[in-house]
Amino acid sequence: MKKQEVNVISKEHKKHAKLARPDIGHFSRNEWAILGAPCINIKLLAADVIAALSPQYKCAYADSTHNDEEVLPPGRLANGATLEYTDQINNHQFNFDLGLKSINFRQQFADADLVLVNGNHQPAKAQVVIIYQNKMASLQKRVSQLTNVELVLLADSSVEIFDFIKEAVPNWEQLPVYRLDETDKIIDFFKTKMQEAKPVLNGLVLAGGQSLRMGTDKGKLNWYGKEQRYYMADLLKQHCDDVFISCRSDQHTEITADYKTLPDTFTDLGPFGAILSAFREKPDSGWLVVACDMPLLDADVFNHLISNRDISKLATAYESATDGFPEPLITIWEPKSYPVLLAFLAQGYSCPRKVLINSDTHLLKPVNAEVLTNVNTAEDYEKIKRQIHQKIAATQE
User: Which residue from 287, 244, 282 is spatially nearest to 263, judged by alpha carbons?
Assistant: First the structure.
């Protein structure tokens, strides 16, 4: 009798790939639930903070209805539609009849820099607790939600933090405590938190192209005494927390160990795949992405780009002097661009420029448009080589 074959799954087998997950709470990276006071006080406080921060950051607010009466679903939802969109001229309204989970909320709030939440109804990964005598019992019911309290506010005549808060929040003595009417201090608290939350900036040198028009690997061209991929990485090291050379998997071993590499994990997508691969590795970082075929770039260009970085936008990029479109391959891509890039890919688009054109991009006029010149052919190479040599000779005179 033939022995039956049995498929054995190792105890170490895992169903899911090991991916770096973005540091996102219920709604967004930066979210605070305000709880412990009547909902009207929470709404008013949120309004003050949003009014102060909205010129610089994209702010959002999450709440629940206070209408306990059973009513029919609005509009066509009452007829069985699952989604209804209305152009309200000055704003847009979506009504939908779908069960929402954390992943749905994160998708909807992906563009928000800051989310304030009515904590009497919704959770968030950080909390602002209001000590309001008449709401003590209500707050005590929600003590399990106090997982990361960062600010305490004293309302009405309150002068002491409730004992059950002290028990639930081990570091309560180190927390800032303001009165609820100290609006300026509260706003400064959120401004400081947002400044501290600014994503770190990593550098990515795109050196994984086939260089078919050039006929030789553009990353290996020597313009300034070393291969261009290394020269560009060294430039970025002056401005970025960490720097990687993006490459194909077959190039990985040829790059010297002095430089970190980031092989493409989204393959056959060109620069689009390289950017996605970078976010897959570090999804909470901003990425200054630069192609290795722009030999006229220098430290002044990077200084200008970084000093004008707008983290509330999807990306910060230069405007092309030839067609007015964004230059995608010398661009700071913010963490919020990761899901947008994936969404474009899901719809069959793999062009970084198309993403920038159709997104909220901060566009800059280049101080000197010539420095954005690409070198793609042997003729381009000879022209730019002469130009660089003339520039170097002029500085040595």
Answer: 244
Residue 223 makes CB contacts below 8 A (sequence gap 6+) with: 231, 295, 384, 385, 388
| Residue 56, token pair as written in the block | 């610089």
**Helices within the chain (DSSP H only):** 39-53, 102-108, 136-141, 163-168, 183-196, 228-237, 271-281, 299-307, 337-346, 352-357, 378-396
- Give the global pTM: 0.90
> Could you list the residue range(s) of the whole structural domain that residue 36 is in?
31-64+79-196
Collapsed DSSP state (helix, strand, coil) of residue 50: helix
Final residue before a domain boundary, out of 150, 171, 196:
196
Cα torsion 381, 386, 388, 392: sign? positive
Count: domains in the chain: 2
The predicted-structure confidence for 53-79, as pLDDT tens digits, reads as follows: 999 999 999 999 876 556 678 888 888
The domain that holds 342 is classified in CATH as 3.90.550.10
